[in-house]
Design goal:
The chain has a domain of 149 residues: 3-Layer(aba) Sandwich (Rossmann fold). Helices cover 56% and strands 18% of the residues. It has five helices and seven strands; from the N terminus they run ααβββαβαβαββ.
Length: 228
């Protein structure tokens, strides 16, 4: 066993104190440097995570877009464009349909490109358009035709509309409603032409172009105005 003899205790204590103080300063500097480095690394990690989340969000957006419309032939995008067009068409058609018959509204199918009927009088039940009667089908078809002219007229001016047949499927009340609505459209600047063999229409339409037989396989066109 060795025994350390200290001749000058005060000098030894002084030197030891300064050594420990110097060591403490070095430890403090190291600790402060480490804290700074940790803060920098933390900030860098946070920034990396932020960038990673932004990239992930961007990837998910494009991945979702690719899932919806991405296909070699563009079929998915075509379906989406057609669906949006059909929705716009039904929106226009419903405005006319409410003039003719406030019982029904048109809706588009979410599964496929199809038009369905919403029956307001029966708790808003949705059913196929094929379940309508002949007169109701004509009114819906007329609403869609008018809506199509409005949809196209956003780029091309369409002021004339010719309707061919279908009026024979309407009862007296429905015929009155349809002709009244068409009369309103005419007062708004549209020219409405009706091609029909229904005799009841002759009394309801003032200006007519009639085709009359004159014999020998010939016919002539006669302009008739019942108000003259």
């Amino acid at each position: 066993m060795k025994i350390l003899l200290i001749d000058n205790y005060d000098s030894f204590t002084y030197n030891l104190y300064h050594y420990l103080s110097s060591l403490k300063c070095k430890v403090d500097v190291y600790r402060n440097d480490k804290i700074k480095i940790d803060k920098i690394r933390l900030a860098e990690n946070i920034n990396r995570e932020k960038i990673l989340n932004e990239k992930k969000s961007e990837f998910e957006k494009w991945s979702k877009l690719n899932e919806l419309i991405g296909s070699a032939k563009g079929d998915k995008f075509k379906v989406i464009a057609q669906q949006l067009t059909l929705e716009s068409l039904t929106d226009f058609a419903n405005k006319y349909l409410q003039r003719f018959n406030n019982r029904y509204l048109l809706e588009t199918s979410k599964e496929k490109l199809d038009v369905l009927i919403k029956d307001i009088f029966y708790s808003g039940i949705i059913r196929p358009i094929q379940t309508l009667s002949g007169g109701e089908t004509f009114i819906v078809s007329l609403s869609l035709a008018l809506a199509l002219s409005d949809l196209v007229s956003e780029k091309v001016m369409i002021n004339s509309l010719f309707l061919d047949e279908g009026f024979g499927t309407l009862d007296e009340n429905s015929l009155d409603i349809v002709l009244s609505a068409l009369g309103n459209l005419q007062s708004e600047g549209k020219i409405i032409g009706v091609i029909s063999h229904v005799k009841n229409l002759r009394e309801r339409i003032s200006t007519q172009i009639q085709v009359k037989k004159i014999g020998s396989g010939k016919s002539k066109i006669v302009l008739v105005n019942s108000f003259e």
